[in-house]
Specification:
Number of helices: 5
Strand content: under 5%
Number of domains: 1
Oligomer: single chain
Order of helices and strands: HHHHH
Length: about 140
């Protein structure tokens, strides 16, 4: 379960850039992005706490809720504009997350070979987040 949450949190850094907000300094960008990721992680941990992993209906509901929370966090991150280096890191993460989204669909359909690719993409997204100083987004 922790791995699912970690993957989801890594993916949430994928927001990309956009919006018409002010350009943040590198430190301010990291601070705001980390706050968004930390809040998502806390909400996800709370949502999964006490769920019996054998209760498929409860797991499906929690996972669907996780998707909605992650999408909201992506939108929040997408509104952040940072320095070029921060945006380049987010672009690297974005490309991995987009691919991971496609791989997750294969996993959901039972494609066992997709698990290895999902692990690789998650690791790459987490590494990009770590390299960008987004410690709460890994």
């Amino acid at each position: 379960m922790r791995r699912i949450l970690s993957g989801a949190v890594a993916v949430l850094v994928v927001a990309g850039c956009g919006g018409e907000s002010e350009t943040l300094s590198a430190d301010a960008f990291r601070e705001r992005a980390n706050a968004i990721c930390k809040q998502l992680d806390e909400e996800n941990q709370k949502a999964f706490k006490g769920i019996d992993t054998d209760d498929q209906e409860a797991m499906i509901r929690a996972t669907e809720d996780l998707g909605a929370r992650t999408q909201k966090a992506l939108e929040d991150l997408g509104e952040l504009e940072g320095p070029e280096a921060s945006e380049a890191a987010v672009d690297r993460i974005l490309s991995r997350a987009k691919a991971l989204s496609e791989v997750n669909a294969k996993l959901a359909s039972g494609d066992a070979e997709a698990a290895e690719e999902a692990t690789r993409l998650t690791t790459e997204a987490q590494t990009a987040a770590k390299d960008a100083g987004l410690k709460d987004c890994t």
